[in-house]
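=== RUN LOG ===
request id: a7f3
mode: sequence -> structure
chains: 1
length: 483
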Amino acid sequence: MTSTSQRRYPVLARSTLLTVTLLLSPASGTVMANQTGNQQAAAHLQENQLSEKAKRTEQKLQMLVPALDDTSRHITLETKDQPVYEIRYEKNNEFFARAYIHAETGKLLTYLLDDKDLENPDDKLAYKSADTFMEGLIGEMRSLYKVTRAPVGDVIYSRYVNGIEVVGDEFRLSVNSAGQVTNVSAGENTLTNINPADFLPPAQAMKKDQLSHFIPPRLQLMYTHGENQTNLVYSSAFSGYIDAVTGAELFTIRQYRKWRWKPISLTPGGKVVKVTNEQEAKRIYESEFGMSLKGSIFNGFHNEMESIYFSPDEKELLVTKDGDVIRFKSYSNVPPQRGKATLSEKQVLEKAVQFMQPYLKQEEKEFYYILNTDEENPNQYVVEFVPSVEGLPLVYGRCIVIRVNGFTGKITEYYQKLDQKPAKLPDKRKAVSMDAAAQALLAQPTELLYIYPFINGEKLAKPVLVYSIDGNDINALTGKVEE
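=== RESULT ===
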């Protein structure tokens, strides 16, 4: 599924504590775990220490919001992902507003006013207030943006060139009933490039019917779990962005995700690890899985389905179902390391397979897998295994997830959810052809966009003209795109 949503400030989490509820989710806790090792200390600054570009933006902000004059300012420089000034405005020692400004470009990333007025203004007032703010903030550049009103009441400024949207080049403003701008959020590509010559004219794009050559290789036939049945679908195993000239797949994130499942044969060992109390949980955690509790203990939480054992600081977790260990996860056994991971993807897969094979049941011999870097920590790898059923991957529900340290090869998470195989499967012999599935996908609304893709981990400075392709599954029996 193609997503045009962009990262927004000011979500800068600092807590490393995790609740038991969060720990139960295979994908949860990643952000918090990485804050411990990767968050750099913020430097406290004076106003005269702002960069010149940031200082000019902050002065514009004061002009647009006169109430900021009567505030005290607390400035810090965040450097985790990019150099960003956080400016906290206070009145009478209480929070009044906050701004995030990019240190190098001076771009206002986010502005937030402590506002108690929850009423929406009428459209006329909202547009007028937003326009006044935008003209004061970016001047004549305002003319580059089209303005719309979101259903939630926000005013959105989106950049279009040659009548085509520039993904991530936008501003979103909230206005209260008094006409005050209470929130400003800029897209990550806002005003990245304003040179019209760098935007390829749409006339140079291939015709839509030519896309049919590039879509079939990016589809994958698979079984998926429905609510009460198993479905046979063609899944869109790609990013959803196709270069409108070359047909190449492009990505708008640095750590791109792989969607295609690959088959693998395994040798099951049939080993079962049982735990019935906190003492056994501690022994198994350390002796079987090689995780240190560093002198700590496990506390237990039990319900009808599972038993959950967790350390007092909630950084170590072990879960059992009917006494069998189905999951463990460690945060403190993953020391922060700098530089690029030293293990190759092949070595990471070997480590994951070596670990999981002893615990597989005798009938669990064939799987499909996907190997990706962790979205929050590129030095951690996540390997997901799903069963091979009738020679196809069975996705959504039954899985094994293994997280591998990219330096040491240490397994830091194991999650096994292999329930009973479905009793009835759709007949894969009745599936429509891959070409027919591709045509059904291309019959959906397909638009041209400008994006700033990542190539070899670096974002391109110039936009690329792409086709955005619907990412929904295609029902392989009917040939229709699913909603």
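=== NOTES ===
The longest strand covers residues 164-175.
The first helix runs from residue 20 to 23.
=== END ===
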